[in-house]
């Protein structure tokens, strides 16, 4: 089912019903779709300030910032909940102005997404137990099948230990987990009068038909200056025990379109945290592999974009991008003709493949002049630079001939 959006965004009296964003591969909060080109997530002032004082040089490597919206929680008599965004924070219109066609609740959508297997399989994924349930033959893979004509109707396949496949859900499994948790939290603290602030950002994958997305947490340190002692030591441990310490970068989530089976291969942050440096290298190889051949055409464009970003980051004095991510994403649908392909299956398609890198998630970013009153650092973010340099080396050295 596709929810019609007949809402007039220009009219502040009308609300926009937020939908779960189906291509959320990482993060802990619920990323929502505002419109086809815009996503939104709960506002953290530090992130808003960062975007509002963003150095021009970094703009090409960040999503476009589109402002703030007020979001109402609306519960119907059945207890179903919707999130409705109002473009202007100072409007006092009633929720009844919301278009009827758009009033399908998020609960309904998420429940539809899970109708085939129920919550059980999802929870398994969430707890990491799905990995145990899946035999070595498909080591922890969950496959998300997609029908992109109907974005809300994509389904996924979970392969169990007997090789049986079950439809699981309509979203990236990690995204689905975040949406459910977030809505549960909001629901339990439900207060009809409370306005929640969300930040609007350009949906950087909106022009991609089959977006393959890698979320990399950058740097050797994760905790912000404001972290409690307890959080700080938890995050230090996560960095020490993962490739954050050894490489300055770790995987936080990933989806790769597998053309042959028309499914997404999905990995979550728990998978990423367990990787050794060598496992990290293999995961990058997998990110560039479509199930049939390695996308060698992507290596050079990714490397050159990472190098361009590197030279910009080196010039950002006092910035510390703690806990931020770098998204690398490309179009999974290849237009290569058979003549572009090597007999062994390696395509030499160099017709400007669609691929991009963007920095995201600045809730713990600090810099001289930022409004939080914490430490002021000198020089560029060496942890971030270390991660980027390693990334460049690893991608450059991906064994293209294998
Ligand atoms: N501007 C964007 N466009 C498209 N996808 C995005 C964008 N920002 C974030 N995402 C997706 O949402 C996920 C979580 O985003 P993030 O900002 O890290 O959230 P959190 O604050 O919960 O950590 C990312 O892994 C990515 O898949
Ligand atoms: Mg994040």
Automatic annotation (TrEMBL):
It comes from the Eukaryota. GO terms for biological process: inositol phosphate biosynthetic process; locomotion; phosphatidylinositol phosphate biosynthetic process. GO terms for cellular component: cytoplasm; nucleus. Its EC number is 2.7.-.-. GO terms for molecular function: inositol hexakisphosphate 6-kinase activity. It holds the Pfam family IPK. Keywords: Kinase, Transferase. Coiled coil: none annotated. It is an enzyme of class 2 (transferase). Belongs to the inositol phosphokinase (IPK) family. This is Kinase.
